[in-house]
Amino acid sequence: LDHAVAGDLQSLLKENVGSHDRERISKELKDEAKYKEAADKVRGAWKKRYGSDFAAAEHSRFANSFAIDAGKDENHADVKIEGSGVKQSLYLHLHKEKSGEWVIALPDSVTGDNFESSMLEQMKSLADEKDWPNSVDEGYRHAAAHLLRPLQYKK
Fold this sequence. Notes:
Oligomer: single chain
Number of helices: 6
Order of helices and strands: HHHHEEEEEHH
Helix content: 40-55%
Number of strands: 5
Radius of gyration: 15 Å
Distance between the termini: 23 Å
Structural class: alpha+beta
């Protein structure tokens, strides 16, 4: 989440998405300027609302109230994320890379164009948010629900 809110789609892909998908999508990204502009607005709104910089990695407890169903096998997992802050359930496919790290596997239908436009749409939605949750943990859950949506498989 931190890379997404920093406005860096390449780093978001590098750190969170499987190598096959990352290579396919990253070379198709065109112009991240609008995305970075929306991310700047989100960081400003976050700081104004919560009095600190956005740092999801340092506040991982926000995910504790997500209901996560995982399964499949030792190298693959289908993850359903629901719970506080998530209006519609999210479905992610994860797989373990050769390095041993778990990463998100994207549907083949995700291209650089539609990934970039979906991430921009979600970031603009957050940037235009008028009623941020009261607690910082709820704020992170709310942001996560928006920013993970373009990475999901549709059910």
